[in-house]
Amino acid sequence: MADKNKRMQELVELLNHARRAYEQEDTEIMSNFEYDKLYDELLGLEQELGTTLASSPTINVGYEVLSELPKERHERPMLSLDKTKEVEQLKDFLRDQKAVISWKLDGLTIVLTYQDGTLSKAVTRGNGEVGEVITNNARVFKNLPLHIPFKGELILRGEAVIGYKDFEKINAEIEDVDAKYKNPRNLCSGSVRQLNNEITAKRNVCFFAFTLVSAEGADFKNSRYEQLEWLGRQGFEVVEHHMVTADTIEKEVEWFAGEIAGNDFPSDGLVLIYDDIAYGQSLGTTAKFPRDSYAFKWADEIKETTLEEIEWSPSRTGLINPVAIFDPVELEGTTVSRASVHNISIMEELELGVGDKIQVYKANMIIPQIAENLTRSGVKDIPCACPVCGGATKISMENDTKTLYCTNPECQAKQIKSFALFVSRDALNIEGLSEATLEKFIVRGYIKDFADIFHLDRYEEEIKTMEGFGEKSYVNLINSVENSRTTTLPKLVYSLGIANIGLANAKVICRALDYNVDRLYSATIEELNEISGVGGVIAKTFVDYFADEKHRKIFEKLLKEVNIPKEEVEKEEQIFQNMNFVITGSVEHFTNRSEVKELIESKGGKVTGSVTSKTNYLINNDVQSTSSKNKKARDLGIPIISEEDFLKLLEGN
Predict the structure, then answer these.
(1) Which residues form a coiled coil (predicted)?
(2) pLDDT tens, 634-651?
């Protein structure tokens, strides 16, 4: 008995810690599978011992909210749902009743209030009794109606969610890996609870209604299904829902399971609620659960396999993530062979070692995870050197979580932005190498420096089998790489990512140095400072870069990979020498404004983005426009010329 009580206390502490980390710190210290298993163990002990601790997660719903947002108590407590993974239990629940089945979306539950047809208040679920007021943020949800036909007081509940596509796009834009969101739910929670709703608006948060709490004076014929249909007619996007009976529930569950793969929005199961409102309400509630509804969680398909290796995957902030590589298994209709382990703490919790027999599953039928380690040989061989650059690693403890970092500031994995600039359109213009793809290639060791990009064909078979690649995309990539070999000296200089050296500056400098590589190396600050538009800061940056032997070697290595046609500089053609232009509006005689810019720069001029006292001409076909650029040009006495006038300048008229 004493051992069981001690175990119960351990489980309460462990589960509360995991829940707190997940909901308040965006840190995942155990998988959903492990959490559910421990939760069920705790529930069983409580039932066996007849004892429930005050802090038990089986009777406490969520944690107190932590933010500067105003807090408000809900008129009715928001209880969680009793859950099962057994369809038979749903049949027992249904008996002779009809029910509505719908997605259990994995986002943030919101309570909305409408007065006189206008959204007046939005409050998060919080801890079920007290939530945070996020009305301003709700007003910028992507699909939420601010005004509805119904003019009485309406209170409803729904889920704020962010789709997988938006989640991946937003995460890709976050350079700091530690700041990346673990899943769409974490991203949604952070987005909905922003103090600045401009940030919320950029996150494409969607709202799906799932429960009508009250609607003043409306008649729903005692039907939950009718309530949801009515909400749809008011303009709300309603969670997908079907009517079911005990005879059809099994088929409906199978249908929803089949839809998961194509679902953009995260779901962690299904919800079943009696259609008969009066009957459901007459059943009342337990201390934690309403008796008129049930949550169904997918019965995870678990396969046993062997852990072949731990792949350590560095990222752009130096964080090195462990990834489990195992013998391929079929799960939920697809072949999987790898799963993120997230950090060293989870590895140690699983006592994960190469050669162990492990059980794997797909969380929510989508994300591969390790459920259990059957042999637990223990964590070994945490790398002392970064697998990308060979730099020293260190173990860091943050929020009770052990993580591994690369300490080398020059690590290639930390230089993703530099590689992205190198392949960008104004530089080498290599299509097919997004930041995400570059990161994968760098982590796998295919790219260590810029020159390696020209030899990706060494890894043909590996690239073709990578996710998102195939024969066609590989061929397109290699063709683009080969096409990029013919370039210009200014583009090559710009591709190096020298601070303050844009493409326009690179063109001006290369032209002034007669496109002579030796002169690039030997140029002095004084020499460059004499070039119109360069200045002391740019001159020093340029000279300092090529004074570094390491940088010269990088450049020399690149020169062997590319073909730079000889550019003849006609001094007499530099008719725009020391002249500054600004181009605005649409163009007619040229393909686009960039073409005009190229022409001006080829004639010795410079193109800037804003009108200043140093501007010589503003090119705008709408000469009489009252735009801000035209107004400023007039105030400064700067000529505003059309394309026709510009062409006359070119001809010397």
Answers:
(1) 1-28
(2) 999 999 999 888 888 887
DSSP 570-604: -GGG-TTTT-EEEE-S--SSSSSHHHHHHHHHHTT
Collapsing DSSP to helix, strand or coil, 87 comes out as helix
In the structure, what pLDDT confidence band is assigned to residue 4 with cuts at 50, 70 and 90?
A: confident
346 assigned to some structural domain: yes
Q: Which residues pair with 370 in a beta bridge?
A: 360
Which domain range does residue 36 map to? 2-49
The pLDDT, as a whole number, for residue 139 is 86
41 and 23 together in one domain: yes
Q: Catalytic site residues?
A: 104
Instruction: Say if residue 125 carries a ligand binding annotation.
Output: yes
How many other CB atoms sit within 10 Å of the CB of residue 243? 14
Task: Tell whether 206 is in a known binding site.
Answer: no
Annotated ligand binding at 556? The verdict is: no
Residue 60 inside a domain? The answer is no
What would the mean pLDDT of 175-187 be, rounded to a whole number?
Answer: 65
Residue 488, pLDDT score: 92
Answer whether 0.90 is exceeded by the pTM: no
DSSP assignment letter at 261: G
SS3 164: helix
Q: What is the mean pLDDT of residues 550-572?
A: 82
Neighbour tally for 149: CB within 10 Å: 9
* Rounded distance between C-alpha atoms, residue 579 and residue 584, angstroms: 17
Q: Hey, what amino acid is at 316?
A: R
389 is in an annotated binding site: yes
Contact (Cβ atoms closer than 8 angstroms) between residue 308 and residue 360: no
Q: Are residues 402 and 459 in the same domain?
A: no
For the cut 70, the answer to whether the pLDDT of residue 532 exceeds it is no
Say which CATH number the domain at 247 has: 3.30.470.30
81 among annotated binding-site residues? yes
